[in-house]
């Protein structure tokens, strides 16, 4: 049985969320990332939809991995992913129509999210079912995290608000999430436009590198301190 | 396992496997389509009803707008489509107002899809944007939940404004443009004007149907 507190699971979680994050480290999935992150709400919706597809595609691919010969694996993976995305699209349109109106344009874009094919190819086709599911889930969480951070920073700078229209996505109960941070804000359009997306993404990736370096330095210092000091 | 490994090398197995996956995928999609089609149709009708209600006041009709519509050939009417579905709002059988969708070409990026309602005298009852791809923060003030601009059309007609006045202020008309975005409002004003022209040309035909 798969234990989510085990060493392997821990490694998968860390990889998915931070060390090997889809965007930060693999630099994949930039097309859907930059297209939807005008607001934090859109980022969250896109992230959750990608998470569902990523987890299920990893699961399905892993289940079929012994059957699939290397020669035809790519068309089969593409077929599976496209089917899953279409299923998500249809069911969202039927049962979460308000959310579909906001995100509908972007759902088909998930097919073009190379991170999904990437995980199927590099992880799920080689690893057992539970590990693959967990990897898909954590990669999805990592992707959602980046989408929300990027969406939030662009939204705050461009319009001075946060999580606008969250009630459309998550239902009336979540309208408390909608914040207006600066009431008399004139707006800074650049960050809402595609070039602003690239610029903000650059800042965020740079920040991630800085944090990584600080962490590495800290770990090094601790290692030095831990060594016994030999007096001469 | 070794038999499976040998089988996996076989091109016949490979093509059958691919075919099997394709069959499975199409079967699944077919099932999903069957179980969601009616619901999606229902949701789309609700959406349409909601946008119709925005451009035609409730008190003007007592019929079911979605079922009372005619297809009009609009190839020469510059509504953006060759055929337009015109919804007829009737009260006690008489047509009181009409509503139809039209596409405004000449937006900043792509067509702007509009729906408008016109009463039987030819006055604009309302205009709403259904979908557009204009610049967020500049051109999107045409949406009613971002700005009141689109409400300015209400009550205007070909009678109470001249051709020259059916334009944005920059071009000598009566409608505001947005600072930094003239193209988007200009496209909509022109399109609403074309809609009124279409109604004027077909008025007797539409009111009699």
Question: Would you write up a description of this structure?
Answer:
The complex is a heterodimer of chains A (232) and B (209). Chain A is mainly alpha-helical and 232 residues long. Chain A has one domain. Chain A contains 9 helices and 2 strands; from the N terminus they run αααααααβαβα. Chain A has a two-stranded antiparallel ribbon. In chain A, helix 6 packs antiparallel against helix 7. Chain A is flat and about 60 Å long. The N and C termini of chain A lie far apart (54 Å). The mean pLDDT of chain A is 86. Chain B has 209 residues and is α+β, with helices and mostly antiparallel strands. Chain B contains 3 helices and 5 strands, in the order H-H-E-E-E-E-E-H. A 5-stranded antiparallel sheet of chain B has the order 1-2-3-4-5. In chain B, a hairpin with a 4-residue loop joins strand 4 and strand 5. The N and C termini of chain B lie far apart (73 Å). The mean pLDDT of chain B is 88. The chains are: A mainly alpha (232), B alpha+beta (209). Chains A and B meet through helix 4 of A and helix 1 and helix 2 of B.
Please provide a brief summary of the model.
The complex is a heterodimer of chains A (232) and B (209). With 232 residues, chain A is mainly α.
The helix/strand series of chain B, from N terminus to C terminus, equals HHEEEEEH
**Number of strand segments of chain A:** 2
Beta percentage of chain A is under 5%
| Estimated radius of gyration of chain B | 24 Å
Record keyword descriptors for this entry.
heterodimer, A: 232 residues, mainly alpha, two-stranded antiparallel sheet, 9 helices, flat, B: 209 residues, alpha+beta, 5-stranded antiparallel β-sheet, 3 helices, 5 strands, 38% helix
Indicate the topology.
The complex is a heterodimer of chains A (232) and B (209).
Chain A: H1 7-19, H2 30-36, H3 40-63, H4 73-95, H5 97-103, H6 114-124, H7 129-159, E1 161-162, H8 166-170, E2 179-180, H9 194-226
Antiparallel strand pairs in A: 1-2
Helix pairs in contact in A: 1-7, 3-4, 3-6, 3-7, 4-5, 4-6, 6-7, 7-9
Chain B: H1 2-9, H2 11-55, E1 69-73, E2 83-91, E3 94-104, E4 112-119, E5 124-131, H3 183-208
Antiparallel strand pairs in B: 1-2, 2-3, 3-4, 4-5
């Amino acid at each position: 049985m798969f234990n989510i507190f085990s060493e392997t699971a821990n490694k998968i979680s860390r990889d998915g969320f931070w060390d090997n994050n889809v965007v930060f480290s693999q630099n994949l999935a930039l097309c859907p990332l930059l297209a939807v992150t005008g607001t934090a709400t859109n980022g969250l919706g896109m992230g959750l939809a990608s998470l569902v597809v990523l987890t299920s595609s990893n699961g399905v691919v892993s289940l079929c991995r012994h059957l699939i010969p290397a020669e035809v694996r790519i068309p089969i993976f593409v077929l599976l992913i496209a089917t899953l995305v279409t299923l998500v699209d249809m069911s969202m349109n039927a049962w979460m129509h308000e959310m579909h109106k906001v995100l509908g344009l972007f759902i088909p874009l998930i097919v073009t999210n190379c991170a999904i094919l990437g995980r199927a190819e590099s992880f799920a086709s080689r690893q057992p079912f539970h590990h693959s599911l967990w990897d898909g889930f954590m990669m999805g969480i990592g992707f959602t995290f980046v989408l929300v951070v990027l969406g939030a920073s662009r939204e705050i700078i461009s319009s001075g608000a946060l999580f606008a229209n969250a009630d459309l996505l998550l239902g009336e109960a979540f309208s408390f999430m909608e914040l207006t941070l600066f009431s008399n804000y004139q707006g800074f359009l650049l960050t809402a436009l595609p070039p602003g997306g690239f610029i903000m993404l650059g800042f965020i990736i740079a920040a991630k590198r800085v944090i990584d370096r600080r962490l590495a330095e800290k770990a090094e210092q601790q290692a030095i301190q831990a060594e016994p000091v030999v007096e001469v | 396992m070794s038999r499976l490994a040998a089988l996996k090398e076989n091109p016949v197995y490979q093509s059958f496997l691919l075919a099997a996956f394709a069959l499975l995928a199409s079967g699944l999609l077919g099932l999903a389509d069957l179980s969601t089609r009616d619901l999606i149709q229902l949701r789309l009708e609700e959406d349409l009803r909601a946008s119709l209600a925005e451009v035609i006041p409730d008190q003007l009709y007592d019929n079911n707008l979605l079922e009372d519509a005619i297809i009009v050939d609009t190839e020469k009417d510059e509504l953006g489509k060759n055929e337009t579905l015109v919804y007829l709002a009737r009260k006690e059988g008489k047509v009181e107002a009409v509503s139809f969708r039209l596409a405004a070409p000449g937006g900043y990026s792509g067509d702007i899809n509009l729906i408008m309602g016109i009463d039987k005298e030819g006055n604009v009852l309302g205009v709403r944007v259904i979908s557009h791809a204009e610049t967020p923060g500049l051109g999107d003030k045409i949406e009613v939940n971002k700005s009141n601009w689109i409400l300015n059309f209400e009550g205007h007609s070909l009678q109470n404004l001249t051709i020259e006045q059916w334009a944005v202020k920059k071009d000598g008309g009566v409608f505001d443009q947005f600072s930094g975005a003239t193209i988007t409002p200009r496209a909509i004003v022109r399109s609403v004007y074309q809609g009124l022209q279409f109604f004027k040309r077909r008025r007797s035909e539409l009111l009699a149907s």
